[in-house]
Amino acid sequence: xxxxxxxxxxxxxxxxxxxxxxxxxxxxxxxxxxxxxxxxxxxxxxxxxxxxxxxxxxxxxxxxxxxxxxxxxxxxxxxxxxxxxxxxxxxxxxxxxxxxxxxxxxxxxxxxxxxxxxxxxxxxxxxxxxxxxxxxxxxxxxxxxxxxxxxxxxxxxxxxxxxxxxxxxxxxxxxxxxxxxxxxxxxxxxxxxxxxxxxxxxxxxxxxxxxxxxxxxxxxxxxxxxxxxxxxxxxxxxxxxxxxxxxxxxxxxxxxxxxxxxxxxxxxxxxxxxxxxxxxxxxxxxxxxxxxxxxxxxxxxxxxxxxxxxxxxxxxxxxxxxxxxxxxxxxxxxxxxxxxxxxxxxxxxxxxxxxxxxxxxxxxxxxxxxxxxxxxxxxxxxxxxxxxxxxxxxxxxxxxxxxxxxxxxxxxxxxxxxxxxxxxxxxxxxxxxxxxxxxxxxxxxxxxxxxxxxxxxxxxxxxxxxxxxxxx
Amino acid sequence: xxxxxxxxxxxxxxxxxxxxxxxxxxxxxxxxxxxxxxxxxxxxxxxxxxxxxxxxxxxxxxxxxxxxxxxxxxxxxxxxxxxxxxxxxxxxxxxxxxxxxxxxxxxxxxxxxxxxxxxxxxxxxxxxxxxxxxxxxxxxxxxxxxxxxxxxxxxxxxxxxxxxxxxxxxxxxxxxxxxxxxxxxxxxxxxxxxxxxxxxxx
Lengths: 472, 202
Prior knowledge:
The structure holds two protein chains of two kinds.
Chain A: H1 6-13, H2 16-27, H3 30-38, H4 44-60, H5 62-75, E1 79-83, H6 86-99, E2 104-107, H7 111-115, H8 118-124, E3 128-131, H9 134-142, H10 158-167, H11 178-195, E4 198-201, E5 205-207, E6 213-217, H12 221-226, E7 231-237, E8 241-242, H13 248-260, E9 267-271, E10 285-291, H14 295-300, H15 314-318, H16 320-325, H17 336-346, H18 351-354, H19 366-370, H20 377-390, H21 402-409, H22 411-421, H23 435-442, H24 453-467
Parallel strand pairs in A: 1-10, 2-3, 2-4, 4-7, 5-8, 7-10
Antiparallel strand pairs in A: 5-6, 6-9
Helix pairs in contact in A: 3-13, 17-20, 21-22
Chain B: H1 2-15, H2 34-37, H3 42-52, E1 56-58, H4 61-70, E2 75-78, H5 80-92, E3 96-98, E4 111-115, E5 118-120, E6 125-129, E7 144-149, E8 154-155, H6 158-163, E9 170-174, E10 179-180, E11 188-189, E12 196-201
């Protein structure tokens, strides 16, 4: 159907208030992030290239490193599970919870868990599952979806949140002061932490040599969520493995700076087993669920570089399309440039439906410039556009380019069209009953057509130049 | 079943990679931040970077006592092993100091004094590990957390601290007080964990 692509439609329909929040939230802190790298290092580019090569090496030898991580974890008393699909992952986690008799848990922010829609599933199955990251907590109260990897409620303002708190009984009265909002969540959530029997987390990195999971937060929610409980379950994408602990220094120094302009996020936790025998707080049982869910398809594709991603959100912050359209416009867990590459392959069966995403970019390259693992996102977007073309996947709402292609590849047709285009200057095309034309003209003013005058000029110019004995 | 399937898919995907990337040999000095490492000694470097993330570095129990009194944080927990050196002095000044942490009264503790196993000068971080600290919760639920360490336990850089991980199954780096910027990007401290992070050297 000719019309408008879904992402464009979304950008058009977004409310002014939401768009203002997204533009403000994504552009804020850009300088801070830049300076945190460039003031600390003479050549930050060398560090991100190093990070990219460590990730590429790991991905190219993923079988070895994943097996090694499993071995390291198992040796330290951790139960390791594997899940091929989202459904496998949900069932595996539910079975672990049932095994330990868990009916209530808190969960710290995890994109992997978002990807498999873990919360609603657990709740349907009778497990109270509460998000503990402030932003994710608000998302859960609203039945909404996060729209940014690092800043899940970038699309909401303080008034939205204050209303939610009253509606959901977190607060007795309306108060939109950010500090009050935070204190109210603090009081509400710590009671939940203390009642819970398990904590679910993701992991930012897994070191193959010792099995150590690195988990980062600023709020301290994952630490708190795990301190009073007996069971820790970490849901981890298989691409999170890195060769050794030594490499953490490279990635941690890049992740905090690229995500929020911090050298390190406040809490960086390293876990490779149940709590120490002398420690009264912390889980006695630790489970790691390694999830594929499309990652091996990405690994087999010509866009495997996207698996280097360490989920810092920097590409979202700088992307002009993301800023205008918001993360929700990408209609999947991962929005922005990384999502435009990852989602169509990761959720392969949805490729035709998401095929407009790789086109939603001007290929300006800002995403690659800020990427801490140097993912060539613009190149990957082009590869996906090519894939859509080769597989003849129609993109909903796209204006077909084939008539233009016919025109542009035949010189005589082109000349005729050029001459005829002069007639357009005298026709009221703005009112022509052609929907896509109207859509297009709705936001643009066409210059008058010169009707191929350049060709005429060039011909005369060449003839003049030849007469003068010069090269044109 | 999933395990075998996943490894088979990884195997076939990586077999398609013609030029496999080698592991890069690199020197960790590449991630040392020279401006952050400026300073005469590790304590000076640590305090500068710790202050930059809104942590408070203290060198005496008297200083801690002043701070707790001024901020009206008068009831807390102290690791029994640190009671003689620190807790007793606070108790003598009239503060309520418990050496047992009771979860059912988590809101009673306004401060928590626990052992840190070290610090990182470069990033202004205190390190807590399971093997050496008495209660994870006592470092989390009180508004003020006092991490106690000795000068000799400060690592120069992040790579140094990683190299010293050892065998503890749980290590946490705390770089300042708990914070969020989720609401309109505005920085608020004291979200779930402490709103004041103190490092006290003894």
